[in-house]
Amino acid sequence: MRCAPRLSLALPFALLLALLAAAASARAADPPPAFTPAQRAEIVAIVRDALVRDPTILRDAVTALQASESAHRQQAAQTAIDGAGPALTRAPGDPVAGNPQGDVTVVEFYDLRCPYCRRMLPVIDSLLRRDPKLRLVYKDIPILGEASVLGARAVLAAERQGGYARLQSVLMHLPPQFTEDSLRTAATEAGLDWPRLQRDMQDPAIAARIHANLDLARQLGIDGTPAFVIGHAVIPGAVELADLQEAISSARQAAAATR
Fold it and tell me: How confident is the model over 197-232, as pLDDT tens digits?
């Protein structure tokens, strides 16, 4: 009968840390270690004694676990981004800002009514001004109720008049409770044909695009707005300009390395 080795009380703390980190990062599919109840009790006693002697072991183990989980999320995001293919960055009809021929594409998933998305407006404007090689794709995901759906339908319909950016800018500076009346006022301010906009908003293709955006967001593990996809990274939340610039630089370097 093969038995697992006994663990000495003289187990070095470095080895104990490795044991804790490995156990914390192991996946459920991995086979459990073949320890007897007595051996498991001995391990627990060793761990308890080690934590009493040096509590920083727990901190280091948690740090190792967080690093492992972060790596796992990054790998999952990369797989999802690769699986999305052209639907992510090159879907026909997607609203595009910046340089249409840019060497790096930033995809922004956002809701017109989201306060954090609105907070990112000057950041995005600054990013596009500073980086003439940048291409920005908007993915409307109306997750904040019917008013959000109404607004998303309006800006996507405005794209057919070449007015997506103009209407988006107006709406994102208005109170977020969009109505037909406020949309009419906004469309007029943006120089759009309101009757045509109304008709286009009812086109099933507009609803299909919104559903496709929501499905893509779920596929990428995006559960809030704003969220940015840059290269193989998903960046959630309202972030600083420097964070976006760093991700764009990394994406450029990765693209250059593959040429």
Answer: 999 999 999 999 999 999 999 999 998 999 999 999
pLDDT at 256: 87
Kindly state the tokens that stand for 224.
Answer: 């809030």
Q: pLDDT at residue 172 above 70?
A: yes
Phi/psi of residue 222, nearest 5 degrees: -85, 120
Cβ contact 7:39 at 8 Å: yes
All structural domains of the chain with their residue ranges: 13-72, 86-258
Q: Does domain 86-258 have CATH number 3.40.30.10?
A: yes
Asked if 87 and 107 touch (Cβ cutoff 8 Å), the reply is: no
Residue showing tokens 């006022």: 185
Q: What is the pLDDT of residues 90-125, one digit of tens each?
A: 999 899 999 999 999 999 999 999 999 999 999 999
Task: Specify the pairing of strand 233-236 against strand 104-110.
Answer: unpaired
Beta bridge partners, 137, equal 96, 107
Average pLDDT over residues 74-84: 80
Cα(156)–Cα(98) distance, rounded to whole angstroms? 18
Question: HSE-up of 190 (CA within 13 Å, CB side)?
Answer: 29
What is the reported pTM? 0.73
Is the preceding peptide bond at 204 cis, omega within 30 degrees of 0?
A: no
Residue type, 221: G
How buried is 187 (Cβ within 10 angstroms: 0-12 exposed, 13-18 middle, 19+ buried)? buried
Q: Which two tokens stand for residue 257?
A: 């390395």
Give the sign of the dihedral formed by CA 81, CA 128, CA 243, CA 235.
Answer: negative
Beta 134-140 vs 104-110: how paired, if at all? parallel
